[in-house]
Amino acid sequence: MPVFSPLETTLFLVLLIASTVAFGLRFGGVVRRILQAKPDADFKLGSLGKRAWDFISEVLFQTKVIRERPLPGLAHAFVFWGFCAFALITLNHLAAGVGLAFLSREGWFGRFYFDFAAAFAVAVAVSIFGLFVRRFFVRPRWLGEPVSVESGIIALLIFVLMITYLPAFWYGETKPLWWAHTLALLVFLPLIPHTKHLHLVLSPLTVFLSRGEFAHIPPLAGDEDFGLDTGKDLTRIVALQAYSCVECGRCTQHCPAANTGKILDPKKIALGVRDYLNDFGALSEEPLLGKHLSQEAVFQCTTCGACEFQCPVGIEHVPIIVGLRRGAVNTGKWEDAYGTKLFLALERNGNALGFSATERDKFIQKQQFPVFDGTQEYCLWLGCMGAYDPQGREIVASFARVMAHLGTTFGVLKKEKCTGDPARRLGNDLVFQQLAEQNLETLKQANVTKIVSICPHCVRTISVDWKEFGLAPEIEHHSEFMARHRNQLPRADTDDKIVYHDPCYLGRYRGVYDEPRAVLARSGEVIDPPRSRERSFCCGAGGGLAFLGEETGERVSHNRVQELVATGANVVGTACPFCNSMFRDALGAGTGAAAPPQLLDIAQIAAASLPK
Ligand code: SF4
Ligand code: SF4
Fold first, then answer.
1. Rounded CA separation 396/202 (Å)
2. Atom of ligand 1 nearest to the CA of 302
3. Which of 85, 235, 266, 308 is deepest in the core (most CB within 10 A)?
C-alpha cells in the first residue's frame, strides 16, 4: 500500500466526510419520510423462517432477478455479488488512506480474499459493461424514455472501481490508482440515495418486510380509514416500497394495461408515490390522485398481479392500487356510471350482473340441483357467472355432471350472493363487507364445511378476503377437484389440440398450474401459449373491470385471444367463467383465423367424455 503524506491524508479525510455527509443528508431525508408515514395496522412479522428464506433466495441469490430475465438478470446478480465481495476490500482501501489497512497479501486470508475479489472485479466489469450496452444501445422500451443519464454515470463509476482495482491487484497499488479508486467511491456514495440506486440499501428490507401473501389487500383499520386518499394515509411499507423501485420496467413489460395502450403503468404507480412523498411528504393532506398519480390509470388495473409477481425488489402494486381506489370510492371522488350501476346491483340484487335472484332459482330448478342440507359432501358455489351468465351456467351444469359421474354428493345454497370480489377490488369495502357477512351467515346456517367453485375469483375471495370477517370456509377450485379424481374420468379419444389459458386468480394468486392441465390431458394434447403459467397474460376481466364498460386502447382480451389462436390449437381451454366470457366476445369479434378455435371450460371438456 502507498504511504500518504499528512496533506494527502487530510485531503482524503475531508473528501470522505463530505461524501458521507452528502449521503447521510439525503438518505436521512428518505428515512424521515418513510417513518413519518403511519405504521401498517395489519402488519405482523409472522414466520421469520419464511421471511429469512425469501431474503436468502431473492436478495442473496437473486433468484427472481435471474429467473425472469436470465441474461441481464445474471449480469445484475454479478454486480450485486461483486458489491458484497467488495465490502471488505472497500473498508480496507479506505483504512489504507489513514495508514490502517488490515488486509495483507502476506497472510493466507488476505491472499485468498484479494484473489476472490479480483475474480468478481472481472465479472462485475464485464456485467456492468453489458448492462450499459443494453440500456444505452439496445434500449428495451420497458426501461423507459428518455434513457437515464444517472444510470450511465453510475455504470461508469462501477466500471472505474473495477478497473482501478485490477491493475493494483496484478501490478501492485500505486498512488494514482488508489486515488482514482477512492474518488470513484466517494462520488458513488452520495449518488446512491439521490438515484434509483437507493434500492441497494432499501430493497433487502423491502423484501424482508413484504406483506407475506401475494396481492394481499390489507383490511381497513377502523371507521376512520378510507384507504389511500392523501399523504396521511400512506403507510410505512408503501413508502418503503416506493423508495425501493429500481425502475427496471419488469412490471410494465408484463402489465396487460400497459401492453394495450392504457395509461396505467405499474412502474409509474410506484414512482408516483415516491414523487408524491418527495414533493409533499407523508403528513400532507394533498390528494394522492392528482399531480403524480392518475385516477384513470388506477381504475384500469385488472389486479392480475403480473407486476407484483415480476418485481425484483418486493413492491406490492395490487394493495397500493386497491388502496388508491378505496380512497377515491370512499371519498366519493370516483364518478363512474358503470361503477355506480355495479355497486347498486350488488347492494340491491346481491349479484354483479344485476339480475333478480329468482333467475337463479329458475336455473337451479331447471338443472334439478339439490339444495344443500348438510348431508352432502360439497356445497357447489355457483358465483354470479355460474348463476346468471349463459356460458357460466353451461360450465356449472357440466361440472355438476362430472360430480354426479364421480358419485360426489353436492348441493347449492338457496340464497347465495356475490362474494364481493368486484366491490373489494374496486375499493368499495362497505358493499364487500355486507356481502361477505351475509354469505358467511348463510353458510353457517347451512352447516357447510366444504365448498367447490368454477370461479377462481370466488375461490380467492372466499378463502382469503373473507378471513377479515371470521374463519374463511374451506374451498377449492373445480380444476383441483377434477385433477384429484382424474383417474376416474374417462379418456377421450380425440386429436384435439387444446391451448390452455392460465387465469390470473388461479395461477399467480393460487399457484394452481398443473391441475387444469392434468384434466385437459385426458381429452387431447395440451399446449401452452408463449405467455403461460406465472407469466400468463390477463383476459382483462379482473379487478371489477368486467363490469366497467369500454376499454381505452386495444382490448386486453383481444390481445390475449390473438396469442391463443396463433398457437394453431382447435380448442381454447379456460378455467374461469370470466376469462371464458371475455374470450367469447373477443372470438366473436373475429380473429382472422380460417377456423376459429372452440372455446370451452375444463369442466365442459371433461364432461364431453362422460357416457351420455
Ligand atoms: S395488477 Fe396487472 S393490470 Fe394491474 S398494474 Fe399490475 S400488471 Fe397491470
Ligand atoms: S416496481 Fe418493481 S418491477 Fe416495476 S420498475 Fe420498479 S422495481 Fe421494477
1. 48
2. 3
3. 266
Q: Are residues 177 and 113 in the same domain?
A: yes
| Ligand 2 binding pocket includes 581 (Cβ within 6 Å) | no
Q: What is the pLDDT of residues 351-381, one digit of tens each?
A: 999 999 999 999 999 999 999 999 999 999 9
Ligand nearest to the CA of 321: 1
Radius of gyration of the chain (CA): 28
User: pLDDT tens-digit profile of 477-513?
Assistant: 999 999 999 999 999 989 999 999 999 999 999 999 9
pLDDT value at 592 more than 80: no
Domain endpoint, select from 194, 221, 244: 194
> How many Å lie between the centroid of ligand 2 and the Cα of residue 119?
30
271 close to ligand 2 (CB < 6 Angstrom): no
Place of cell 367447490: 452
Quick check: 543 and 264 in contact, CB under 8 A? no
From 165, 61, 189, select the one nearest 113 (Cα to Cα): 165
Q: Return the C-alpha cell found at 518.
A: 392434468
Q: List 289's β-bridge partners, or say none.
A: 293
- Owning domain of residue 266: 231-330
Q: Is the beta carbon of 251 within 6 A of some atom in ligand 2?
A: yes
Average pLDDT over residues 410-431: 97
Query: Rounded to whole angstroms, how far apart are CA atoms 402 and 408?
Result: 9
Q: 386 and 477 in one domain?
A: yes
Q: Whose CA is nearest to atom 7 of ligand 1?
A: 255
Mean pLDDT of the chain: 95
- The ligand that comes nearest to the alpha carbon of residue 266 is 1
Residue 119 CA neighbour count, 13 Å, CB half: 7
In this model, does residue 104 exceed pLDDT 90?
no
Alpha helices in 60-107 (DSSP H): 63-68, 70-96
pLDDT at 582: 97
The model scores a pTM over 0.90: yes
